[in-house]
Amino acid sequence: MSRARGILRRLRAPVAVVCGGVALASVAAPAPSPVPALSQAANERTALLAPTSDRAALLPEGRRLFVDACSSCHGEDARGIAGRAPSLRGVGELAADFYLRTNRMPLDAPDDQPTRHPSNALSTQQKRAIVAYIGTFGGPPIPEVHPERGSLPAGRRLFAERCAGCHQIVARGGQAPGAQIPDLEGVAPLDVAEAVDIGPYVMSRFRSLSDHEVDSIARYVAYAKDPEDHGGWGIGHIGPIPEGMVTWLLAAFALLLTIRIIGERTTR
Amino acid sequence: MIGDPVRFVDERLNTASLVRKALRYVFPDHWSFMLGEIALYAFLVLVGTGIFLAFNYVPSDAETVYRGTYEPLRGTPMSEAYKSVVDLSLDVPAGLLIRQTHHWAANVFIAAIVLHLVRILFTGAFRKPREINYWIGLTMLAVAILEGFLGYSLIDDLLSGMGLAIAYSVALATPVIGADVALLIWGGEYPGATVFWDRIFTVHILILPLLLAGLISLHMLILTKQHHTQFPGPKRTERNVVGTPLWPGYALRSLGLLFATAGVLFLLGGLVQINPVWLWGPYEPYLSTNAAQPDWYLGWLIGGLRIMPPLEPVIGDYTLVGNAFFMGALFPLVAFGVLYLWPLIDRRWSGAGERHELLDRPRDNPRRSAALVAFLTWVAIPFVAGATDRVFYRLGVPYDLQIWAFRVLFVVGPFLAWLVARRIFEDLHDRDAHPLRGWTGRVVQRNARGGFETLGAYDGRTRGEGGAERDEATVAADVPAER
Prior knowledge:
The complex is a heterodimer. By secondary structure, chain A is mainly alpha-helical. Chain A is built from 10 helices and 2 strands. In chain A, strands 1-2 form a two-stranded antiparallel ribbon. In chain A, a hairpin with a 2-residue loop joins strand 1 and strand 2. By secondary structure, chain B is mostly helical. Chain B contains 17 helices and 8 strands. In chain B, helix 6 packs antiparallel against helix 13 and helix 12 crosses helix 13. Chain B is globular. In chain B, 37% of the residues are buried. Chains A and B meet through helix 7, strand 1 and helix 10 of A and helix 3, helix 5, helix 10, helix 11 and helix 15 of B.
């Protein structure tokens, strides 16, 4: 009995180390909800409408769905409602595809920050119809993006200059005044191409970028999802915060345990 | 074989008596006395790995173009300094292992110093006659923080550059002398002259390490002269030292700790990625990244800068004090000032200035311990505030709310901590319970006449395990030694 207890007492230290390690892993691992769920979101990665899609057949349903799902903020004529939502005339299929495909729209409340979601109440077919309908008001088409044609070093440089200030240099997202900057771990190349054109929420527009530059940025974003970790466990790619946690929760903890085991414990 | 050279040295330098004395040096034993040793051994690892790094580092801001093995950086303009660190990491055999071990060792070095300092503070080991050695140790902490920051800066990656930009801003914000000091250190306006890189390199690899080595030697010399303090215990008095001699006892244990420390650091260096500079990319003054942070030991200052309200006294168009000064410079100055003055404050509180060879347990002086908890809380709150952006990002707690909460906590937190800690330490003092192991008081038995008699020390078993069924003889037999 006492022997068993002795063994248990001996096991206490290793068990504590393992628990500490697990606690750390849970923090450094790809983040939990709410945002991280978004980053892993499996929303559609290809355009809702191809250039050759038959748009005319979609328009009646698109009109009906637009009135149902969008018009309370954007207005029945899609000219927007002051203080509520912008006009959609001229935003084109590009913006409609971006917001609907990534499930940023429709919003629960007009002041919410649009964030990407794995799915929402609209089916893919319904989203296609709305995109076709919004496209009838004119505006840019859904862009084509070819990350494989882009240059990784050029993409990294452009990302450092234009994107990293908000999205973090390895695209892990962060905080900006009035907004939560999404990480780009789950985004499709098409999302990148559309976002630089639209400048969603607080983001700037980067319309001066050439197609090649957009391809390059999309290529770097895809690379950054799983970058080269030559040093071992990547602990989240956000630098010193997880490093400090490893210092205290793993290294300092293990060494404290060591001296507690090899040193004398009682004072009298 | 061994005898001849040993005799040769001994006959000339009379080393035998010195060695004999050293081997008989007595270490009073307590696990918490080994915290400083962890720091010492981390320093050894730092020096060893640092020499290797210095051989491979180029302290130059001259511009070059990367043509190495890491594709995403190919063709990118960068400084020679940054390029040398990328090459060291990705192309020099074992380079990354050594660099990562160096960085982990720096983080652990300062963590161990802080833990050691906390132990010294809570047990009253800084009291007469050890004030001078306490001040030396405190100076080492300050030097180590600066040394760590310079190592972080030397790389000239995105994080280095942003860190130096903040340091430059804090220097500029300092009243009266700030701008001149900044120009003097950087050799010109930010990002500074070429000579700046030679300066911080020399300071990082030569001046501060030598200073640290000198202070460590002095620290240990004074330690051996004054001997360790010891916790009170059987046969331990203010005039003796009870413990394990260096040889054959303590030296082997300490050697084991050296190996354990080096082992943990090299394991981390090989398995856990720290500061992946190839991912951060080179720094240019127009570049920045979200989520940039200093290493943990400067987290209290970055958090302080964040929670500081936008206060900036101005007369006309002359700024008296720049905002960054308050939490970037004044706060650490006050914090270190309090720590330097602590032995004097403590002496004023406890009155007499007699010598103390016996330590207090934290509960033995609830007022000191509670004040220390309040002080550490005051420093820890901005430290936690340094992570507000990631807390917002991960948990969605509104950023402004967090900033305001930390501002209030910075002012109120220490008082609350003081009240709670005072209560706990006084309670521990009165009940003499162990905070983790529970009650260790005495077993009292009620006799037939209704009176009480003390049976002896609580041995951890009499309660709960059928103590009521056992007869008096058994209970008494459990605790014979104490009477």
